[in-house]
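Write out structure tokens for SnoaL-like domain-containing protein.
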Amino acid sequence: MSDIKSTVLKAVTELLRDKDPSAVDRWVAVNYKQHSPTAADGREPLRQLVAGLPADFRHEVHRVIADGNLAVVHGTYHGVGPVPLVAFDVFRFDTDGQATEHWDALTPQIKDTVSGRSQTDGPTEPTDTDRTEASRALVMEFADKVLIGADHSLLADYISTETYHQHNPEAADGLDGFAAAVTKWAEQGKSLHYKCVHKVIAEGDFVLTQSEGEFGVPVVYYDLFRVADGKIVEHWDAVMPAPAELPHENGLF
């Protein structure tokens, strides 16, 4: 396990499982920069957030990706509302092992999904770590040509026609499932529109893209792809409406 992966797991354990406000001083830098709509900059707002977590709060980690000084935690927050929230949390760490920056996207957990898969199940550990850059390049090209360029005629160039497991709750498995979902969303006035990809974070066969666009309203897209044999074979996501106001001036990206 890489140092950054071990670090982020220790940090989220002490902060979110142990609910220890003092862990903020151990794992969060003084100049902590926040992009989440849930908190302001710095240690103190985070300390207050941790101290105020309800008794039934629980954070479940599903997978972690490490890429340079960035770490992604794909997890579920329980006890924060009427339904659990599925989340992607992205942290930047300094050389002392403290978090200096944080981004996230949260979406409600849906029990009855079209594919029958949950929003979080599937493989959890990155493999093919020697092919990280090839996986990154494939997903970046897919994002540019298909997501931003909206050229769906190229889908089969990037997504496996044999195995494509879908974890978006409204889409079925396979290319046909993706195409049907896109058509349904367009009919609902929620055309899938990507404007820009801000981050691409990769480890082995896992690649996360952080993007902005529109889905009926301005949204933040976090898409996690798994690559095998040169094609995308699995997809998880969180689509979050972009709030009109934030408790800081850093933006969502």
